[in-house]
Amino acid sequence: MARSYVHEARKRVGPRRARIRPFIERLLAEHADAAIALRFRTDLELLVSVMLSAQTTDVNVNRVTERLFEKYRRPEDYLAVPPEELERDIFATGFFRQKTKALRGTMRMLIEEFDAQVPRRMEELLRLPGVARKTANVVAAELGEPQGIVVDTHVRRLSQRLGLTKEDDPVKIERDLQKLVPREYWGIFPHLLIWHGRRVCLARAPRCGECVLHDLCPSSRV
Description:
Elements: H1 2-13, H2 16-30, H3 43-52, H4 58-71, H5 75-79, H6 83-90, H7 96-113, H8 122-125, H9 133-142, H10 153-161, H11 170-180, H12 189-199
Helix pairs in contact: 3-9, 6-7, 10-12
């Protein structure tokens, strides 16, 4: 019964490729303010913020980095203090020992191999200690050169709910989205889904009656 219902719902809303542009256009109008919630002023602050955001909230990271970025302004600054001092400074973000190790390793590599500058290419970002694909995707996109599509919990959940993927693995979800989403929207698309997921398409009680995508969504309860 469930499989039959899903099949009928997908037939009703039409193929994924035909729905993707209306999805983007409607979400752009609905969430014109959709953007990264982390606060940063430089490329280095962006990289550090994203690295610290693992397993915690953006609000928490912003609270920590408000002071952190006054103290640490260059890659050298992160290596000039004992590891224990940096651990104390980022303690509130959780997993502070692992994050300290990753930050110090990244700063060392930035100095030794990238002239103390944050690289913009995915293959170079992924070489940095503690930088996995999601982090690299976020940094590249915010630097204006998206080379993939960020898949976080909201993007994963909404992509499945909207019938854009049947996959569960983030890497496979990203591949599906890259085939559907026009490249010029790779940077903004995750933000649109994240903000829609926070404001309307809630995990436990989606507000389908208020959703601008309800007629295109195979999971709609309207």
